[in-house]
Amino acid sequence: MTKKILKQKNVNIFTKKASCSKKNSTKDILAKHISYSHETQKTSDTTAGQTQVEQAPVPQIMEIFYCDICEFKTSLKCRILTHLKAHVAEQVYCCKNCDYKCTLKSNFIHHMKIHTGEKYFSCNICEYKCIQKSNLQLHMKIHTGEETFSCNFCEYKCITKSNLLRHMRIHTGGKLFSCNICDYKCTIKSSLEKHMKRHTGEKPYSCNICEYKCIQKSNLLTHMKRHTGEKDFSCNICEYKCIQKIHLLNHMKKHT
Fold first, then answer.
1. What are the backbone angles phi and psi of residue 13, rounded to the nearest 5°?
2. Which InterPro entries match (predicted)?
């Protein structure tokens, strides 16, 4: 399929180094150009009165791959091939479990981990596990107390830029996303997407033990604790334990 893309778009992907403007459509033509134009030169030996061929210093050659559709260029062939797929919107990999499609196998493998539940990265301090290394790096900041981003209006600090942008809307009062069915408005696109599932009745997450289904993954994780008997929140005054923090807060009111 990639060869068809290159042929259809007539992409001149081979070219000489930056100091030479010569471009060629094939590697063979490029090699001949270098051989005749750059590798040897004739010089005259005035002392001996003879003409000899001297081997000129061969410059370091770097292949540059160009896209004929836009100004993109790279020294890696794999990158130009990936780039070309974006132009023709070639969707090679399709998920059988959902509507996800992509052009890169690596992205597809990563996506499938969402369905299989594979989590290769784990925290060495707590039980947190995740799919991506970047998510683990962000999580570790919770333990180290590192807060990279800060608000210039108040003392708010956070770990991620997305959280800061979300916080800034409190000061600006901006709610950019709104429901076209009801009056719901929010500052985060993902919140709107979750809200819309209430109208469509879509519940993508389901329990493998009972018939429980829900909109959010966090709700499913909370539900699963009912089957495992896990209770993360406990009262420091009595022996009360519960699954959700809100239940603990309601319980604490009894002591006050």
1. -95, -10
2. Dev/Hematopoietic_TF, Znf-C2H2_CTCF, Znf_C2H2_sf, Znf_C2H2_type
